[in-house]
Amino acid sequence: MKQLNKTILYGLYTDEEVLMDAVRDIREEGNEIWDVFTPFPVHGLDPVLGLKESRLHIAGFVYGLFGALTAFGFMTWTLTRDWPIIFGGKPYFSAPSFIPITFEFTVLMAAVGMVVTFYLVCGLGPGVTNPYLDPRITDDHFCVAFDVTNMSEEQRQALEAKLLSTGACEQPKIKNI
Amino acid sequence: MSSVVSDIRPPLVMGNKTYHQITEDICSPTEELPNGKWVMLLLGALGLLAFGALALFVTIWFGIGSWYLNRTVGWGWDITNFVWWVGIGHAGTLISAILLLFRQKWRTGVNRAAEAMTIFAVICAALFPGIHMGRIWLAFFVFPYPNTRGPLWVNFNSPLLWDVFAISTYFTVSLLFWYMGLIPDFATIRDRAKGFRKRIYNFASFGWTGSAKHWQRWEAMALVLSGLATPLVLSVHTIVSFDFATSVVPGWHTTIFPPYFVAGAIFSGFAMVQTLMILTSIALPQLKDYITQQHIESMNKVIVLTGSIVGVAYLTELFIAWYSGYVYEQFAFYNRALGPYWWSYFAMMTCNVITPQFFWVKRLRRSVLVTFILSIVVNIGMWFERFVIIATTLHRDFLPSSWSYYSPSWVEVGVYLFTFGLFGVLYLIFMRVAPVVAIAEVKSILKSSGDQYCGENMHQHTTAEELSSEA
Known about the structure:
The complex is a heterodimer.
Chain A: E1 7-13, H1 16-28, E2 35-37, H2 45-49, H3 56-82, H4 99-122, E3 142-147, H5 153-165, E4 173-176
Antiparallel strand pairs in A: 1-3, 1-4, 2-3
Helix pairs in contact in A: 3-4
Chain B: H1 19-31, H2 36-62, H3 77-101, H4 107-132, H5 159-192, H6 195-204, H7 212-245, H8 257-283, H9 293-324, H10 327-338, H11 342-354, H12 362-365, H13 368-395, H14 410-433, H15 439-449, H16 464-470
């Protein structure tokens, strides 16, 4: 398992609407949230949490462009330069019949590239074990976590109190991960 | 209430579920030992697989002459089965990608199983062109790799090669899309499991934590992959239809083929999803609250729409054959309907055009029994459609001296049974190791489509305020 060498204080909530209000409340007071963990994508959480839009789709476009140019360029090269053959009395460079493979290869490169990028930037992959806070997070609990590695005891207690006052369902816990 | 709740939309998740109950219901099949019925089904599927393996062996050992293909009919059951299986796969992508773009919430109940069906169906489909080549050990020749023959490249102008690219891309993208959706659900199973199972699911869940940023990227990727998979799925059956449409054979050389093939693919695919989902919810009764009448009805609406498109296409074909004034084209269609294979044309017309029209009636559309029977009828009809297009068109070509008739040998039938066995084994294993319904996605629609939030049982749920005051 990967070690982050962090001390994390976290509180659990049982409803995503309570969680959203809590996150908004916590951030308004200037507290920095390390991360929020949810069992399913909670819509509307990203702006509340201050997450910037993902740039993954830009990467997807670049991979797709690479695929399109590679496929079209390769077919053009093989059929006009490397080994020109006349098929069906058509010109060597018969662009319309290159379209299907160009399209398929564009989709293939965009999809594979994006998925690989996703796994890399998220630090996910076959057999990877990331530190986790509570097994109920993938079931029905929503978790707000603070990085309290360099915080004093008073600051930690203030955050604990904040979690409880915003609707955390049980006493917040501290975990070294 | 922050999520949008509509009173006119019927609920999609029944039984007043909590998030935890959803986890319990959907994970439980992967945690219990399989019952006797499942073992019997698996043995049945393995039996088909074993018989089919013998047929495959005969095919590869003696060549495709063992199928009774002849010089006139070079494509028989094999390519019929190929097109049939690829078509079936289309519904999975339609449900997971196109319905995601259209924000159809009912997709969450069936998308996981439908995508699994897609992947298994494409595996079954890919077998047929592979063995039809005759020398399957040289199948890699279809890929443009640098070789010692020049290098001599493959023919990029050939629709058969477009097919290679279309099917392999389709399989890869479907697999990536499906697995991406499975990761959070595997994490759910991992966090409930112990011992060796935990290690397996830990490996399979790729270290998923549920971080908000990861979910954001996950959703961004699901959206773009849907945007890519939507034209992809349309292109795949379009390209499959090019195998026929770019030829000069009367009855094949028609511009109507791409849209007609795509509609037919969605039609047969949804029928197969119905068959599978009904069987799955009988086998796993805990899923009945997630695969509801509402889901069945929605899919039946797609079936009646695409079935009608297919019907219009059949009639258009007949009309254009007559209107073209081209005798070979006219003969091809006359021969389809009234020639020696009239029974397959009759089966195709009845099963694809007439019987699906029952779904205009709401009561029949919502009946599980009627849906189950008609879904099988549709799949038989769509198999006959491909058989009509392939064998019926080929058996009487331009020269009457080379006319022939074709019926399959036990080997050719055996290879078809092999794919049923393969599909059955894969699906049965899938049902036991992976969540058949997408856990995270069902949870995300609970507050807008759970029956405690909309429909008859509305207002029975604990509100967010009550939950926080309890805490």
